[in-house]
Amino acid sequence: MASLLGYESAAETSFMTARTCLAIVLAAGEGTRMRSALPKVLHALAGRSLLAHVLAAIAKARVTATAVVVGPGQEAVQAEARRVLPDAEGFVQQERRGTAHAVLAAKAAIERGCDDVLIVYGDTPLIRATTLERLRAPLAAGAAIAVLGFRPADPAGYGRLIVEGDKLIAIREEAEASASERAIDLCNGGIMALAGVHALAILEPIGNRNHKGEFYLTDAVEIARSMKLDAVAIEVEEDEVRGINTKSQLAEAEAVAQRRLRDAALDSGVTLIAPETVFLCADTKFGKDVVVEPYVVFGEKVTVEDGAVIHSFSHLAGAHVGKGVSVGPFARLRPGTRLGDGARVGNFVEVKEASIEAGAKANHLSYIGDAVVGAGANIGAGAITCNYDGSDKHRTKIGDGAFIGSNSALVAPIEIGAGAYIGSGSVITKDVPAGALALGRGRQVVKENGAARLRDLKALGKKRGRSRD
Ligand code: UD1
Ligand code: CA
Residues with catalytic annotation? Predict the structure, then answer.
């Protein structure tokens, strides 16, 4: 089963185990420009938080320890960091006074000593593990600082990299830059590696005498140069270092993440008929020979096994789709869905917290919630489980090979035995034993020639009505 997690195959990741490395993730910003009550790094990209993307890349880059710097009161950010990387150590930056100030909130971790200190901004989620490793390489060769640079289509808002030959001289924040410096198109990607031996000596002298009155991490380069230490820039493509400050940048990054996930799915052998219309989650997993038709959305935690077909306009989240299963078109699989091998869930069928076992079918217009549908059972068109009584949820159990007639309502808690047969249009409120036939509907009345008599009566009624006018 190919996992799309982290976007890259293990083979792409090279070894870098000789030097120890502390990664510091800066996530204390408020993200004012997102205009949202949610902390910026908790916004979702391809179904998981920006912070989770960054931590996944760091974990894959084989660092020795990870520190996450959060703002005061940002327990939710801290909790997300712990969920993704339980070993990560949390630090609180009491006041948001700039990126260098944020790094020093994790001073205790830096003081413990390590060969490399890798600083990654929490709002740069498309970074790859291999690039983090590449960034550390110049430190092994003697540089004190290495910075990721890129040439964005629109450099507004980014710091500019001032280089001379192969040396990085300074990083100039846009607010501080002269007109000629602003014309530089090589920008700061916001990811920096510092030699551990010099890290504090470089970071601590950083001041805040600038337009924003902030402690800029970017000043580290000029300070290192004044200490006769070397700094270098490594250039990467824009997509890897897109910083997310606004909702529009979040949408651009989503497009990049989706393109990567679709490419990885195609590479692993999934057939995507119109890849640009399929939306994947970073943790979507596919087996072999899976076909996904146009316009399908995958939420978190979906696994699709070999040979399954997901037809158009289906929405899946928290679902396990077994081998050779057919889903949709227009199916909705909600969390807790398990479809056994060869099961079929057809159009306008919603499944939630339910297991539909091997070979069972619910082909049309159905709701199956909090239920087990036994192997080979057939759920007729419009049949539903009535799982909620207004205050509590109840379970429905349908035995193997049972037949649930069209438009039946199974009022839970209820158990239908194996091989039982429920007549169409029944409202079933009592358990049905295995092999039984159950009917729960009004008895039909037939009156010979009744149709003609009814029409006569109606015609008479109309005449009387007119004569009164
Ligand atoms: C920063 C860089 C800029 C670079 C750009 C790349 C500085 C001074 N500028 O600008 O050169 O081109 O990133 O995307 O570093 N943070 C804290 N505490 C703070 C301030 C920020 O933890 O006090 C965190 C934020 O949560 C964010 C990261 O640091 O994850 C970067 O901060 P942000 O304000 O987004 O910096 P930019 O203006 O984008
Ligand atoms: Ca930013």
Answer: 364
Q: How far apart are the CA of 190 and the centre of ligand 2, in A?
A: 8
Q: What is the pTM of this model?
A: 0.90
What are the pLDDT tens digits along the chain (469 aa)?
544 433 333 333 444 448 999 999 999 988 899 999 999 999 999 999 999 999 999 999 989 999 999 999 999 999 999 999 999 999 999 999 999 999 999 999 999 999 999 999 999 999 999 999 999 999 999 999 999 999 999 999 999 999 999 899 999 999 999 999 999 999 999 999 999 999 999 999 999 999 999 999 999 999 999 999 999 999 999 999 999 999 999 999 999 999 999 999 999 999 999 999 999 999 999 999 999 999 999 999 999 999 999 999 999 999 999 999 999 999 999 999 999 999 999 999 999 999 999 999 999 999 999 999 999 999 999 999 999 999 999 999 999 999 999 999 999 999 999 999 999 999 999 999 999 999 999 999 999 999 999 999 999 888 887 766 6
- Running DSSP on this structure, what letter comes out for residue 76? H
DSSP assignment of 272-307 equals: ESSGGGEE--TT-EE-TT-EE-SSEEE-SS-EE-TT
Q: Compute the distance from residue 257 Cα to the ligand 2 centre, in Å.
A: 18
Rounded Cα distance, 127 and 50, in Å: 11
Protein residues whose CB sits closer than 6 Å to any atom of ligand 1: 26-29, 69, 93, 96-99, 101-102, 121-124, 158-159, 171, 173, 187-190, 216-218, 243, 245
Rounded-to-10 torsion of CA 97, 98, 104, 110: 160
The pair phi, psi for residue 341, each rounded to 5°, is: -55, 135
* Atom 35 in ligand 1: residue holding the nearest Cα: 245
Contacts of 192 (CB under 8 A, 6+ apart): 118, 119, 135, 145, 146, 147, 148, 217, 220
CA–CA separation, 76 and 81 (whole Å): 9
Q: Which ligand is nearest to the CA of 191?
A: 1
Structure tokens at 421: 């047969």
